[in-house]
């Protein structure tokens, strides 16, 4: 493992420029595996950034704490400011009411992204950021279009705030996400995050003859070859 995980000199990267050539970016993060590569890409372009962790969708609390602590550990290792926002799970359940049986990428997920980006945009507005972005779209399990629409909708509430729709999967980003996760031996979530995605993932696994998900059991390592399900 390299001493500085953001110093991978054998990997050529494009020079990224945030919208409006902003000198700092607020990065909404859902977990360490998804944000690791995005952090590396932003850092490699010399852009100042802060991580904003606001994910009241994650259930149960044990899983939420695992994902958050892993993200904090990696941020601290690299000296990146980390904002630990509320876990206002009651509000998330109020908003999800009536959407319990929505499929992934459906209306419940739009609500979920909206809620997380609304808070991110508010924090950005109150703390002098003109650009927000998110690592959510790096996962191939997600709809980049859906995420970008939610991000842009949230940013549009504040004058001068822009959601950066950069496709973090490009230029080998998806592969780097996996490599960093293995090198760092990140905790590996096996479902998107909410109680309904846990239910549906377990239902699918049982139908495949596989055991149900055990919270806190799986970590990335050399033998693992799949992306996080978040
Ligand atoms: S499946 Fe994922 S994105 Fe959709 S509502 Fe649940 S946690 Fe949010």
Automatic annotation (TrEMBL):
One annotated GO biological process: tRNA queuosine(34) biosynthetic process
Keywords: 4Fe-4S, Disulfide bond, Iron, Iron-sulfur, Metal-binding, Oxidoreductase, Queuosine biosynthesis, Redox-active center, tRNA processing
Domain of life: Bacteria
EC code: 1.17.99.6
Keyword Protein transport: no
Example GO molecular function: 4 iron, 4 sulfur cluster binding
Pathway(s) where this gene product acts: tRNA modification; tRNA-queuosine biosynthesis
Cross-referenced InterPro entries: QueH
Residues given in the record as [4Fe-4S] cluster binding sites: 30-31, 109, 112
Cysteine disulfide partners in this protein: 192-194
Presence of the UniProt keyword Acetylation in the record: no
Transmembrane feature ranges: none
Catalytic reaction(s) noted: epoxyqueuosine(34) in tRNA + AH2 = queuosine(34) in tRNA + A + H2O
Family membership: Belongs to the QueH family.
HAMAP family for this protein: QueH (MF_02089)
Task of the protein: Catalyzes the conversion of epoxyqueuosine (oQ) to queuosine (Q), which is a hypermodified base found in the wobble positions of tRNA(Asp), tRNA(Asn), tRNA(His) and tRNA(Tyr).
Listed name of the protein: Epoxyqueuosine reductase QueH
Organism: Terrimicrobium sacchariphilum
């Amino acid at each position: 493992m390299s001493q500085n995980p953001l110093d991978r000199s054998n990997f050529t990267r494009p020079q990224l420029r945030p919208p409006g050539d902003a000198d700092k970016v607020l990065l909404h993060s859902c977990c360490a595996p998804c944000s690791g590569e995005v952090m590396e890409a932003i850092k490699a372009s010399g852009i100042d950034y802060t991580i904003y962790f606001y994910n009241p969708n994650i259930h149960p609390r044990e899983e939420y704490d695992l994902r958050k602590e892993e993200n904090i550990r990696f941020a601290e290792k690299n000296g990146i400011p980390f904002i630990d926002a509320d876990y206002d799970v009651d509000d998330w359940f109020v908003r999800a009411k009536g959407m319990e049986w929505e499929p992934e990428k459906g209306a419940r997920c739009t609500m979920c992204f909206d809620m997380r980006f609304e808070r991110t945009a508010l924090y950005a507005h109150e703390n002098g950021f003109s650009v927000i972005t998110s690592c959510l779209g790096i996962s191939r399990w997600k709809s980049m279009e859906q995420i970008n629409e939610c991000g842009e909708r949230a940013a549009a509430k504040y004058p001068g705030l822009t959601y950066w729709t950069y496709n973090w999967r490009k230029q080998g980003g998806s592969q780097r996400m996996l490599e960093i996760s293995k090198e760092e031996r990140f905790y590996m979530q096996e479902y998107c995050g909410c109680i309904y995605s846990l239910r549906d993932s377990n239902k699918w696994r049982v139908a495949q003859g596989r055991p149900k998900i055990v919270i806190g059991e799986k970590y990335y390592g050399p033998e693992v070859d799949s992306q996080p399900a978040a």
